[in-house]
Amino acid sequence: MNTLTPDGWLLHCDRCQKASRITGKKFGLTIHIQEPKSPWEVVHRDCVTALPPTGDKSYNSSLLIVDRYSKTPIFLPCHKDDTAMDTAPLLWSRVISHTVLFKNSISDIDPKLKSAIWTNLNRFFGTKLSFSTAYNPQSDGPAQGIIKTLEDMIKRLCAHGLEFKDSDGFTHDR
Question: Where does the record place the Integrase catalytic domain (predicted)?
Fold first, then answer.
């Protein structure tokens, strides 16, 4: 008979230990960003790289879009070396065409998200671009928390042989 508590079981599960992360320093307080009044008004965008290559197209990255109002994340499979020309149509066809044009988009200074293409597209659509420094949870905390969840999910799913396939993106309920 197994008498381990759930915490004890997790400590003895080899797969759980390999997928768990060391949390390190605690994050500071997040900088106040005006709260949106409706869904998809303010979004956080980020690129998640260094994922294990998977699927027919060997995706190794994900474009993450997080709605600040509902905290709904959308993960779009892509490649680490994709350019802004590759990610802009992906965002348009799989997110914006199903939601609304964003009023404010917060992202780090990733070249894919800060290029002239993004700047001009957002100026044309009237979206304000706000930038933070990379790995700065004070300004893009919602995205960073979800990135950790995504990385943990993918590690665990890949351990069971599941793949990150081409799709319309997927969401995850928190």
Answer: 35-174
Query: 38-171 domain in CATH 2.40.128.110?
Result: no
Give the residue-averaged pLDDT of 9-33.
62
CB distance 77 to 150 below 8 Å: no
What secondary structure letter does DSSP report for 129?
Answer: E
How many CA atoms within 13 Å lie on the side-chain side of 91?
28
Q: Which residues pair with 67 in a beta bridge?
A: 43
The widest CA-to-CA distance across the chain, in whole angstroms, is 65
Can you tell me the distance from the alpha carbon of 136 to that of 156, in angstroms, rounded to the nearest whole number?
25
39-54, pLDDT tens digit by residue?
999 888 888 887 777 7
Beta strand 170-171 with 73-78: parallel, antiparallel or unpaired?
antiparallel
Task: Give the integer Cα–Cα distance in Å for 3 and 6.
Answer: 10
One DSSP character per residue, 36-104 reads: PSSTTSEEEEEEE--PPPBTTTTB-EEEEEEETTT--EEEEEE-TT--HHHHHHHHHHHTGGGS---SE
